[in-house]
């Protein structure tokens, strides 16, 4: 079964002009009608680092969750953020960005990889107490622009450490859109064969014309969990100056359905969400 994760947080976070809280909530409420597995809806991080997400708690209060089937995921970058997020019963997953690149870990969370792994352990302990699940994003998981060491074997070392910490879901993240199809297939194949008890996701950034081939490559490698954002908006503001957008969800849906997967989405509500995206991200 495919898990499709819609990421309005990732789509919004790099936009310099503040999006009104009520507009954010209205958009996420529309996304909740579609039937995605999870909505990555906000983050509990420093407002200085990501000003756009300073109203995540207020947005959460405005969400209509009484009949929503989708789970909610919030990104955190440290233990304090995790503690803030865990005050809300409505949140199912905490996402933490752990980087294979030392340079990017410092840029993204102002911590070393070693410190970040300690944070992952602390957050995992908090999640287990509260009955929540941590999703770790292995950013720069397909290479980096900084000249830092990278290999599929290095990724496997990170997965091994996360497995020892009892993290169950790991999203391999191509933060800057450098992965080719062969690497995508190989990386998922190796990790899924080595750690069959874990769930591996694909959080790939891509130019529009490469989305279909990247989805097919991840599928071939055994991946069944995909992150995207409608219309391909967003990208990581901490990575490089030129943002490579998220995988456009509508293209992923078309590709996955073309491969015979029934995603059980409400297409009418999806159409409304696409229209709303145009006004939110104008």
TrEMBL record:
<dbReference type="Pfam" id="PF00682">
    <property type="entry name" value="HMGL-like"/>
</dbReference>
<protein>
    <submittedName>
        <fullName>Hydroxymethylglutaryl-CoA lyase</fullName>
    </submittedName>
</protein>
<dbReference type="InterPro" id="IPR043594">
    <property type="entry name" value="HMGL"/>
</dbReference>
<dbReference type="GO" id="GO:0046872">
    <property type="term" value="F:metal ion binding"/>
</dbReference>
<dbReference type="GO" id="GO:0046951">
    <property type="term" value="P:ketone body biosynthetic process"/>
</dbReference>
<keyword id="KW-0456">Lyase</keyword>
<keyword id="KW-0479">Metal-binding</keyword>
<dbReference type="GO" id="GO:0004419">
    <property type="term" value="F:hydroxymethylglutaryl-CoA lyase activity"/>
</dbReference>
<dbReference type="InterPro" id="IPR000891">
    <property type="entry name" value="PYR_CT"/>
</dbReference>
<feature type="domain" description="Pyruvate carboxyltransferase">
    <location>
        <begin position="1"/>
        <end position="271"/>
    </location>
</feature>
<comment type="similarity">
    <text>Belongs to the HMG-CoA lyase family.</text>
</comment>
<dbReference type="InterPro" id="IPR013785">
    <property type="entry name" value="Aldolase_TIM"/>
</dbReference>
<dbReference type="GO" id="GO:0006552">
    <property type="term" value="P:L-leucine catabolic process"/>
</dbReference>
């Amino acid at each position: 079964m495919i898990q499709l994760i819609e990421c309005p947080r990732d789509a919004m976070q790099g936009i310099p002009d503040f999006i009104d809280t009520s507009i954010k909530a209205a958009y996420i409420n529309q996304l909740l009608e579609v039937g995605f597995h999870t909505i990555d809806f906000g983050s509990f991080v420093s407002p200085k680092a990501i000003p756009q997400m300073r109203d995540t708690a207020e947005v959460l209060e405005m969400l209509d969750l009484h009949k929503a089937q989708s789970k909610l995921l919030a990104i955190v970058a440290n233990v304090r953020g995790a503690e803030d997020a865990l005050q809300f019963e409505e949140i199912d997953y905490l996402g933490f960005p752990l980087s294979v690149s030392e340079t990017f870990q410092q840029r993204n969370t102002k911590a070393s990889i070693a410190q970040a792994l300690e944070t992952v352990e602390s957050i995992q302990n908090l999640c287990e107490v509260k009955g929540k699940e941590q999703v770790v994003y292995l950013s720069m998981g397909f290479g980096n622009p900084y000249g830092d060491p990278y290999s599929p074997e290095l990724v496997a070392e990170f997965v091994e450490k996360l497995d020892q910490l009892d993290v169950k879901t790991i999203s391999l993240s191509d933060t800057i859109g450098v992965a080719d199809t062969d690497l995508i297939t190989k990386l998922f194949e190796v990790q899924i064969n080595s750690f069959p008890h874990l769930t591996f996701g694909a959080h790939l950034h891509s130019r529009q014309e490469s989305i279909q081939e990247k989805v097919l490559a991840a599928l071939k490698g055994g991946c069944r969990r995909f992150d995207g954002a409608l219309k391909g908006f967003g990208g990581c503001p901490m990575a490089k100056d030129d943002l490579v957008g998220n995988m456009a969800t509508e293209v992923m849906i078309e590709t996955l359905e073309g491969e015979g997967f029934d995603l059980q989405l409400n297409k009418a509500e999806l159409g409304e969400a696409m229209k709303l995206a145009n006004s939110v991200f104008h």
